[in-house]
Fold:
Amino acid sequence: MAEFKPFKGLRFNTELVGTLDDVVAPPYDVISSVEVAALHQKSKFNVAHLTRPSGEDPYATAAELFKSWKLENALTPEKEPVFYIYRQQFNDPDTGEEFPERVGVIGILKLEDYSTGKVLPHENTLSAARADRLSLYRKTLANFESIYGLYSDPDGIVDYVINGPKYLRTVVGEVADSIGSSHTLETIDDPAAIEIISNYLEEVPVFIADGHHRYETSLGFSKERIDLPNAQYILITLTSFEDEGLLVLPTHRLLHGFEPEEIASLPTKLASAGFTVVPNNLKDTELTPLQFILVTAQGEYLFSLPNTAAAIKLVPSDFSAAWKSLDVSVLHTLVIGDLLNVPLDKLSTTDKVTYTRDAEEARVKVVSGEIQAAVIMARPTVDQMKAVSEAGDKMPQKSTFFYPKVLSGLVLYDLS
Structure:
C-alpha cells in the first residue's frame, strides 16, 4: 500500500559543528519560546534555527541558513540512499521504570490522500499550525524533522532486518540524553535489506501517530510543486505496532471560565448522566479505560462507565463504535458537551478547555485557583488508535501523546 523508500539524508558534520548534542532539538511544536531562545544560543548550527526560525522574515531566515549550512558542509548528504534505524532507550515518565527500547525505521513516504487508505490519520488538526509549516516548506524546500508513523508487522519481517544479525548496520550518531531518552542512529544500506523493508511496506497501510499537521501540509505542498519529485515524499520514522517500546501517554483537560455552579454541580450531574461517581482513591497510573479523575477545589472524584457497551450506547453520534468507546469521546460528548455546553465542534475555538500532559501541574493550577477543575485521563492504547483509524474516524484533538518524541536534527530531507 504505502511507498516507503531509502534516501540520501542530510546529517550534521560533527567535525565542523561540534557535538551532535548541541545541534539537535525537540520537535518544533513542543518547545516554548524560552526553550527556542536557549537552543538558538546553544549553537549557531542548532536545528531549532530552522524549525523555529527568528527574524523579521523567519521563513526566509531559515532558507538562507539551510542554504549556507549545505554550502559550508555543516550538513552533508549520504553518498547513496539508505534507511536509518533509530533506537530510543527511556524510562516510563510516570513510574521511573526502564521501558523496552523503541525502534523505528527512517525513510521517505509517498504522500497520499487519506481517501486512498494507504496512509491513515487518527487525530484532528488545527489550520493555524498547517499554515505555519506551509510557509516554511515553501521557503526552505526541506523537511527538517521527521513525523512519526506506525505499521503492522505481526510476523516480524521488518523487525528481523533491523534487529537481527544478518544485515550490517552502522552507527552514525548518538545523543545520550534528550527529550526523555537516549538516541542512536544507524544506517542500513544492504540492497537486500532495503528491498525487504520497501516491499513489506507496500503491503500494509501506514498510520500517522504524530505529525498530522506536517503530513497534511506536505500533502498540500506536493500538489503545489508537482515539478519537484522529492516534494512528493515526506520524512517519516516508522515503528511497528508490535514494538514493545511503544508508549502512549494521556493529555489531561483543564476547565476554566465556567460559572462556579457549573463546576460545583458536576459530580451530581455526572451521577445523573449514568456515571458511577465516588471519592477518588486511585493513582493516576492505575486508571483504566473509561475511568476519569475530576479534580476540583472541593476534592477529587473518580467517575466511570462500566464498560465499552455502555459508552457506545450513551455517546450520541454517527461515529463508529471504536470512536464512541474512546475516553476522550466520552468526556467531550457526555461531560464537556452535554453537561458543560461546549460541543465537540467548538473545541478548537473555545478558551474554556485547555490541555496539559502533566497531571501534577493540573492539580497545582486547581489549588491555586488558576483553573476551576481538571480531568485526569487514563493512558490511551495503540489498539484504540488503530481501530479508530481503520473505521475511518479521527480522534478529537490532543487525544494521544507518543512518548518519547522523535528528536529533530538527526537526519534532514532536502526537497530540492
